[in-house]
Automatic annotation (TrEMBL):
Pfam families tied to this protein: SET, zf-MYND
GO cellular component term of the entry, any: nucleus
Keyword presence, rRNA-binding: no
Every SET domain range: 15-219
Keyword terms: Metal-binding, Zinc, Zinc-finger
Gene Ontology MF terms in the entry: zinc ion binding
PROSITE patterns cross-referenced by the UniProt entry: SET, ZF_MYND_1, ZF_MYND_2
Protein name according to UniProt: MYND-type domain-containing protein
Domain MYND-type intervals: 60-97
Native source species: Oryza barthii
Length: 375
């Protein structure tokens, strides 16, 4: 019988990829052929996953959709968007369901997403003795239900589990993707991780040559000490009163403008916070000003086709359209589409919505231009 490492090599060979040791990083994923920008390098379904919010009904447990959700009538913890998703998950959930249903209400409140992910991992490995179950061994060693091994496995989640995000990179849940966990972090990545539902897609951001290591950019660098100079800076705390805190942050920004270079990461973080504050206050004009100020820094920090740049242009375009700056909106949404069609593909609902908005703005701009010519 082939070893887990041999099974992993066979699994990757069929996808034109290879795994090899990287000094100081452990295993790494390498291209066995060239990939062009926007091409899917690898995709994978999660071995185990769970939504971020338990018992709230924000997302379907199976596909992570957020519409037409109904609670499992037995455990009253799992949520599904329809009978198809419930049937698809039933083999795994029926075991989880019995265990959760037996808990008291107080115990159910203690059921965190991480605990639930652990339970699902154990159940999945007991149910499924196949190739993917064996590949999980490369990341999380075999364990029985004892405190020492459970504690060890919990610690491994922080480095090997992935945050599942929506198309605008907002966190929805957590999943374990055995093959994707081999990809190393880089602050200057050549690939980006994007999700459609629970399915993870790693797309090339730039041409990847044969034998080049694939690297993705982590949203949070937990467990890493990053040496890239682009990662210097600090995060400021959250606040409750947005109008008051907006005034405080504006004062901070004025001081930072005197102290720092316009492309400073510190100044960028402050302006990102101000953008969020004024969006929540629905002060669209001020929000647009700060959105525009962040883009030149994003273009210096990230590769040309990084989703963060595309999403910022998308935000900018939506604000400009709302404020009836149609020509500006057309330029911003065009830039957003050019970038996000590479990182997100063209078939997702998110991209269909963006391309639909772009066509509406383009039609409005044409109408205004023709109306101006007639005058």
């Amino acid at each position: 019988m082939a070893s887990w490492e041999e099974q992993l090599r066979d699994e990757l060979a069929g996808r034109d990829l290879a795994v090899a040791s990287v000094p100081g990083k452990g295993r790494g994923l390498f291209a066995a052929r060239s990939f062009f920008p926007g091409e899917v390098v690898i995709s994978q379904e999660p071995y185990a996953s769970t939504p971020n919010k338990i018992s709230v009904g924000s997302n379907c447990d199976n596909c992570f959709a957020s519409r037409n959700l109904r609670k499992c009538s037995v455990c009253r913890v799992a949520w599904y968007c329809g009978s198809a998703c419930q049937r698809e998950e039933w083999k795994l959930h029926q075991l989880e369901c019995r265990a959760i249903a037996a808990l008291t209400e107080d115990r159910k409140k203690m059921l965190t997403p991480t605990i639930r992910l652990m339970v699902r991992l154990v159940l999945r490995r007991k149910l499924q003795d196949d190739k993917m179950a064996n590949l999980v061994q490369l990341i999380l060693p075999s364990f029985e239900l004892d405190l020492k091994e459970i504690t060890h496995t919990f610690s491994k989640f922080a480095c090997n589990a992935h945050t599942i995000c929506d198309p605008e990179l907002r966190p929805l849940g957590t999943g374990l993707y055995p093959v994707l966990s081999i990809i190393n972090h880089s602050c200057v990545p050549n690939a980006v991780l994007i999700f459609e539902g629970q399915t993870a897609y790693v797309r090339a951001l730039q041409p990847i040559s044969k034998n080049e290591e694939d690297s993705e950019e982590d949203a949070l660098l937990e467990g890493y000490r990053c040496n890239d100079q682009k990662c210097d800076g600090f995060l400021l705390p959250n606040a409750v009163d947005n109008s008051e805190v907006g005034s405080m942050y504006k004062t901070i920004e004025e001081l930072e403008r005197k102290l720092y270079h316009p492309l400073s990461i510190t100044l960028l973080h402050t302006r990102e916070t101000l953008l969020k504050i004024y969006m929540e206050l629905q002060d669209w004009q001020t929000a647009l000003m700060y959105c525009r100020l962040t883009i030149p820094v994003y273009e210096r920090i990230y590769p040309p086709f990084h989703p963060m740049i595309g999403l910022q242009f998308y935000t900018c375009g939506k604000l400009e359209w709302l404020l009836e700056y149609t020509e500006d909106a057309l330029m911003s949404l065009t830039r957003a589409a050019d970038i996000l069609r590479i990182t997100h593909g063209t078939k997702s609902e998110f991209m269909k919505e963006l391309l639909g908005k772009l066509e509406e703005v383009r039609a409005e701009a044409s109408f205004r231009l023709s109306a101006g010519d007639e005058q």
